[in-house]
């Protein structure tokens, strides 16, 4: 067995640990080296993560925390999502995204299926997720004490209609973000129900967070691609991958350069997850002109111009500055 295959087997065995072991060490973090490095790059000194757990994130770019969010909280988020789908409430700035190929909605029969809510920061109930203390204590291990909630999503992967539009191309989240440093940005992604390979769990390429931001664009998929679902143009398809099968309430924290995506939902139900991208308030904005991120800036500006009737002078930085909300500490640079 190759070294890469051995490492992948270790990861898979670790994610399949027994509940007793998970109770003893609640973070999915396995030491894959006999001794920790002299310094840690991707995590900050803290009293929450053990050196072995920190090493797992350093080497792989993600950690899974079991049973972090309660059933009661998840049901409240689910109810808030339903009210929005039924148009019982109208949330300023909220973007309701619908699948390009699926006409059967979950709650409203004559509408296309809602595949995602984006920018729910003005909804008090959904935004409560971003400020959950048990989430923030892990986020702080990566961002430091001054924490901004920058990007919010509730993903509602619909049953695939046969055109494979429910899958999400492999990508790096940093492609969408005009702020740095990348190492002080992290996503928290919580399963709102049991998530498996059958209903389209996250797929990650461990260790790719140590690389650089790659060029992204829409993949040339037969059947179409949902709006804003850009994919990495150049990555090694033979790279070892891990399918993150998760129970309701499990949360994965991952680096914005980690290459990840998700497969089709082959079930009849909708697969829900809620997430927030956090950044240190000490991060700073960059100009993406002349970089691989120019295409996403152009697309975001076009959408903002149509929705808010603003002129072409708006920048990607302006859009993100509007989205960001302080959830802990002080708002400094961002």
TrEMBL record:
Source domain of life: Eukaryota
GO BP term, example: fatty acid alpha-oxidation
GO cellular component: peroxisome
GO MF annotations, alphabetized: L-ascorbic acid binding; metal ion binding; phytanoyl-CoA dioxygenase activity
Top-level class of the enzyme under EC nomenclature: oxidoreductase
Reactions catalysed: hexadecanoyl-CoA + 2-oxoglutarate + O2 = 2-hydroxyhexadecanoyl-CoA + succinate + CO2; 3-methylundecanoyl-CoA + 2-oxoglutarate + O2 = 2-hydroxy-3-methylundecanoyl-CoA + succinate + CO2; eicosanoyl-CoA + 2-oxoglutarate + O2 = 2-hydroxyeicosanoyl-CoA + succinate + CO2; heptadecanoyl-CoA + 2-oxoglutarate + O2 = 2-hydroxyheptadecanoyl-CoA + succinate + CO2
InterPro entries: PhyH, Phytyl_CoA_dOase-like
EC number, UniProt record: 1.14.11.18
Keywords: Dioxygenase, Iron, Metal-binding, Oxidoreductase, Vitamin C
Pfam families, sorted: PhyH
Cofactor field: Fe cation; L-ascorbate; ATP
Pathway annotation from the record: Lipid metabolism; fatty acid metabolism
Protein family per UniProt: Belongs to the PhyH family.
Name of protein: Phytanoyl-CoA dioxygenase, peroxisomal
């Amino acid at each position: 067995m190759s070294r890469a295959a051995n490492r992948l087997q270790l990861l898979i065995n670790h994610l399949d640990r027994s509940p007793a072991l998970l109770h003893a060490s609640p973070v999915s973090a396995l030491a894959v080296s006999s001794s920790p490095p002299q310094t840690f790059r991707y995590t900050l000194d803290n009293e929450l993560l053990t050196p072995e757990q920190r090493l797992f994130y350093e080497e792989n770019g993600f950690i899974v925390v079991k049973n972090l969010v309660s059933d009661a909280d998840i049901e409240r988020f689910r109810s808030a999502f339903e009210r929005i789908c039924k148009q019982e409430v109208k949330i300023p700035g909220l973007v309701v995204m619908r699948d390009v190929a699926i006409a059967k909605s979950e709650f409203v029969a004559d509408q296309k299926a809602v595949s995602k809510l984006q920018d729910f920061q003005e909804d008090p109930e959904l935004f409560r997720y971003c400020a959950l203390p048990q989430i923030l204590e892990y986020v702080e291990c990566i961002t430091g004490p001054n924490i901004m909630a920058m990007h919010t999503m509730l993903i509602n992967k619909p049953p695939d209609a046969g055109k494979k539009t429910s899958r999400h191309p492999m990508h790096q989240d940093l492609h969408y973000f005009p702020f740095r440093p990348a190492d002080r940005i992290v996503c928290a992604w919580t399963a709102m129900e049991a998530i498996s390979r059958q209903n389209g769990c996250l797929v990650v390429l461990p260790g790719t967070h140590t690389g650089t931001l790659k060029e992204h664009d829409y993949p040339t998929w037969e059947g179409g691609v949902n709006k804003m679902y850009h994919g990495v143009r150049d990555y090694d398809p033979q790279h070892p991958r891990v399918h993150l099968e998760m129970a309701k309430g499990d949360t994965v924290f991952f680096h914005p350069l980690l290459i990840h995506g998700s497969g089709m939902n082959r079930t009849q139900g909708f697969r829900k997850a809620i997430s927030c991208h956090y950044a240190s308030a000490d991060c700073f904005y960059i100009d993406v002109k002349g970089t691989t991120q120019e295409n996403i800036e152009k697309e975001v500006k076009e959408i903002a111009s149509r929705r808010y009737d603003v002129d072409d002078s708006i920048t990607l930085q302006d859009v993100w500055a509007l989205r960001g909300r302080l959830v802990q500490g002080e708002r400094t640079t961002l």
